[in-house]
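User: My advisor asked me to double-check a structure prediction for Malto-oligosyltrehalose trehalohydrolase before group meeting. I don't want to rely on an old file, so could you generate it fresh from this sequence?
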Amino acid sequence: MSFSVWAPLHERVQVRVDGQDHEMTAGQGGWWHSDAEGRAGADYAFVLDGEPLPDPRSLWQPNGVHEASRVYDHGAFRWTDDGWTGRALPGAVIYELHIGTFTPGGTFDAAIERLDHLVDLGITHVEVMPVNSFDGTAGWGYDGVLWGAVHEPYGGPDGFKRFVDACHARGLAVLLDVVYNHLGPSGAYLDRFGPYFAGSNEWGPGLNLDGEGADEVRRYVIDNALGWLRDFHVDGLRLDAVHALVDRSALHVLEQLAAEVDALATALRRPLSLIAESDLNDARLVTAREAGGYGLTAQWADDLHHALHVALSGETHGYYPDFEGELATTLRRVFLHAGTWSSFRGRTHGRPVDTARVPGYRFLAYLQNHDQVGNRAVGDRLSATVSRAKLAVGAAVVFCSPYTPMVFMGEEWAASTPWQFFASFPDPELAEAVRTGRRREFGRHGWGESEVPDPMDPETARRSTLRWDEVDQEGHRELLELYRALIALRRARPELSDPRLDRFRVEQDGPVLVLHRGGLRVACNFGGAAEVRLDGEAAEVLLASAEVVPAGRSLHLPAESFAVVQLSGSHPTSVSRSASS
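Assistant: Sure, here is a fresh prediction for Malto-oligosyltrehalose trehalohydrolase from the sequence you gave:
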């Protein structure tokens, strides 16, 4: 291969290949080029002002983010997924996992050994937390600094390709979490090459998306995204915290990205998804470009999580007070804060979703995710404080709603392991700054600083690793079976996955919530035993978490239980009959 790098701020650039320096030639637009031979496996770095730095577009960093890059040949990998035609997002059930803690092995190859569990569960899409290179060995992945290079301790680029290939062989689509809103605190050398940075946010330096030199910076982001989808055969991207992307251009970088991803999907002849994490409560992100939106496929819906969390746990601190008693309202309209007052923000927030036009599958619903667990002081899961029976009720709401369900790894069996914040920065000063900052942050929110686990202690990551021996244990096995049954029922009965929000009704009477799903009623009891009055005769109980006996229009629901009931006079759709035959 030949070498190229964008370095408009420099008058001289060299490339060091296997220890030998070669002069580079200045080209158009601040690009430098060299015909020096770079065979696959050769180590190289760009020399700026006498200092060798890794390639900003590196595909392989075998020795860490501060060392030389290594030439990687995409064509050398032998894929076996030629028959893979992809999976569209409508009808999906997503599973979020972190490679380092999904298995004790903490590698792509170790994760492959557990993929059959996901298939058996009924998962369609595996969402992998960031695998880009970051400083250290263990971490969440959101402190990445070389976005195109796969983290070597997980198995490097070939390891990730083996994982994607194995997923496709099992019918699983792969979504990759990517971070374009900031760079990590160690190894972020982009600003040495050119005007990549503009301002900062709470996590680190932000990108220059609309200032001088922004065209190449935007290209850097979009080329990275396309590379994952094209070269690693990934089926979609989860875009971290897009509200932190500062872009005042007429064409927002997200809209530009969506258009280019659509074009790539056409060329590859398989669907590609873009799923945003956004704090904006603005459906414009997932509105089609033809209708004036950005054209992203979907977005996480934290308001749904918050309302469910309060209903299940009773917690009303932090940002939860607004959501107390608002589960039905939030389920009906996706965003509780929809041009309404948000007490923890101290201002009006969000805008309403047009439920007649925007389908529910464009919003992800979940009981837990890496943020909502890991950003608690001790990383405690819902299962640490909420009964198994109540967890089942929450799962019924998620899987029987018109939204796209997402499961956080281990949730399906009420994993006893916490999921805590951990990192492994080698620099002792940076490590201490992260440790101290984490404790102070939680101290301000009422937790004792001594309660916060040390993120730099290797034991914190080990403690957060799933224990697969729990899957068959009493108390865990039963919840797993219920998750399987809920996902199977959602697949068998199209009424439950119907994404049309204007056909979705929710009634709430105290702790009892009833979802209207075509001719089905999903009765969910978050409190003590209750009598539920239905709007029709109950013909059959399709699934229940406790002993439920319907009597005409009445249904006795034991405490903390749910039941999916078919009403008399309603019949399965033709699709449903076919699925059950």
